[in-house]
Amino acid sequence: MPVTIEAWRITGQSQIDSYVGRWVELAALLVNELAVDQVRGRRADPPADRRAALEAAFQRQGWTPSHALTSADADRLVDVAAALHLAFAGDVGALNQALVRHAAVPNLHGDPPVLAFHHPGADLVDAWAADAGTALAMVIGVGQGVRLRSCEADGCELVFFDVTRNASRRFCGLSCQNRAKATAYRARRRT
């Protein structure tokens, strides 16, 4: 029999804790660096050096990996990013398959104990995939899947975690928002 856990509520707003938010942001970073074909109206070719691209993205986002990322890890993360990209699009079946494939299981390990969704001996890729996938599942599971968004601007596939109060963010950033507004303005002027 399934158990339903109510979302935490403060003045009607569901809250996502910092642990979940951190892993959802990593999921978005992996997807945006390794699994999108169009960025801000331009074709995005896969990075030639995935490890270097990820390390640069980590630095931009202030993410500090607990273990050194190898080139082999970066190559394996491409498949993880593709599965997580499907989750941002609402494909919970693909997300469930990724959780099983990377052995996501809640447990406490370390000193002091830390909640994680991977086995203590898991390699970096399986650990990140399990933790990021579980965080996406938790966001979807508390009814906040609408916060896992793709940019609505033409020619942009970047994903993001919408943390606005009313979940109304539509674009990955200001440049896409400006492009969309300019396109809409030009369309109105033509009519």
Automatic annotation (TrEMBL):
InterPro entries reported in the protein's UniProt record: ABATE, ABATE_dom_sf, Znf_CGNR
Signal peptide: none
Pfam families in the record: zf-CGNR
Domain Zinc finger CGNR: 147-189
PANTHER family associated with the record: BLL6575 PROTEIN
Entry protein name: Conserved protein containing a Zn-ribbon-like motif, possibly RNA-binding
